[in-house]
Sequence to fold (141 residues):
Amino acid sequence: MSTRRTAKVAEAIREVVSSTILFELRDPRVQHVTILHVEVPSDLRTAKVYVSVMGTDSEQQLCLHGLNSSRGFLQRKIADKLDLRYTPVLTFVLDDGIKKSIEASRILRELAEQGEFASDGDAASPVESGEPAVEDVETDD
Fold:
């Protein structure tokens, strides 16, 4: 099966799951959740749904538990809206990449406020400082 088809199916699953959570799911545990992306193998029998949840660790775990409890409902919505031979079994994975990028941004902002980190405008380029560019450096190969 082509990777183009699996990518289309993954995107369609992401859209169905996202809209179902937003408009139809009534579980109070599932709040502040974003569906980042979906990975589907070539047999289309499973789907790994990567989610980001804003909140404390306990709120994230509670939301993940709520999503796992709603798995059958979400799979039924996928079966209704997508014309697939098999309905993929959903697995929810907490992706903390956004949380890590926010933390890195916060650290960089603190360093900039303390004067320990030069912003892009403060750093001199190699051309302005008279240093040779990386491409201009001769090697003895």
Observations:
- The chain has a mean pLDDT of 86.
